[in-house]
Design brief:
With 302 residues, the chain is α+β, with helices and mostly antiparallel strands. The protein has 11 helices and 12 strands. The strands form 4 sheets. A 5-stranded antiparallel sheet has the order 2-9-4-7-12, covered by helices on one side. Helix 3 (138-151) runs antiparallel to helix 4 (158-180) and helix 8 crosses helix 10 (278-289).
């Protein structure tokens, strides 16, 4: 059975390889169909956009599920667990990844804010509140289509044009997020690089230790990182939009879903992902995933 092996890769951190350090952007094209499995659940620090030109993709991100159809764009924020989980026949979609290194020094001034905040801290402050689907937002979908088109072209000034298109896309994203949640500016201190580094280390640790409940209690995390539990909880929520407990539940449930899909029994999937009580697992799974774990089995689909 492959289920045991998947616990080592599902929910993994992806170190995205950007070949151009001065323009750390990747554009990938994918052709998929109904039989496609997609990728494992994973997360990375790069912003990620899905742009569908044909067919449809069911995007699972941060516990939310959203179908993206032709002409629509999806957005995966910083360090969010995600996966394209289902596809319509003859689907064609693009994935655009943008490293935060590109805009590390950029700032903006949200409405009502007393001072500018970094663009990255603004995005992180959105957390899981940022919409998965951008539909009817021509500035953003148009900027995505323009960038993708330029990535498939060549020419003497193509690099400058690509840079301009990337900044146009980032500006359209900021405008769309501010319109979606005009009062959700960056909290004070959200751009603190030290606390951001702590949260990144914590995310990496949780992705490798979530199966052992004793290792990821708040007291255990506090001892490991040499920081108070209160401080860890505060900066984790500030930078991810989720509590540590909610994130662990999300992580464990997405891993359990991957294991069940590979043939693990419900109880075995619960055990391998750190749930010590099956009834509790079933309740949390339905809360986080929107359906019962049984629905993923042959019996549930019958």
């Amino acid at each position: 059975m492959h289920a045991q092996e998947n616990t080592r890769t599902a929910g993994r951190y992806e170190d995205v390889d950007m070949s151009d350090s001065t323009l750390p952007v990747r554009v990938l094209m994918r052709r998929t169909g109904r039989e496609s499995f997609g990728c494992d659940f994973h997360w990375h620090e790069e912003l990620e956009f899905y742009y569908v030109t044909q067919g449809g993709v069911l995007l699972l991100c941060g516990g939310r599920r959203q179908w993206l159809h032709a002409g629509e764009a999806g957005f995966v924020n910083w360090c969010q667990l995600h996966r394209g989980v289902e596809f319509l026949e003859d689907t064609r979609h693009y994935i655009v990844q943008i490293s935060p290194r590109l805009f590390a020094e950029e700032t903006l001034l949200p409405p009502g804010a007393k001072a500018p905040c970094s663009y990255l801290s603004f995005l992180i402050a959105q957390g899981s509140r940022a919409p998965l689907l951008f539909s009817g937002v021509p500035a953003l979908t148009g900027a995505l289509a323009e960038l993708i088109g330029l990535w498939e072209m060549d020419g003497p000034a193509i690099r400058l044009k690509r840079k301009a298109a990337v900044w146009k896309l980032l500006a359209a994203l900021a405008d769309s997020l501010l319109e979606h949640a005009p009062d959700a500016g960056a909290p004070e201190g959200a751009g603190d690089l030290l606390s951001l580094a702590h949260v990144r280390s914590l995310l990496l640790y949780l992705s490798s230790s979530y199966q052992d409940p004793e290792l990821v209690t708040l007291p255990a995390l506090s001892r490991r990182f040499g920081l108070s539990a209160q401080y860890l909880c505060r900066i984790f929520r500030r930078h991810t939009g989720m509590t540590i407990v909610s994130y662990l539940q999300e992580l464990r449930c997405t891993q359990a879903a991957a294991l069940i899909g590979e043939g693990a029994s419900l109880r075995r999937a619960a055990e391998l992902t750190g749930f010590q009580d099956y009834n509790y697992f079933s309740r949390i799974f339905k809360k986080r995933m929107g359906h019962s774990p049984l629905s993923l089995t042959r019996e549930g689909k019958a």
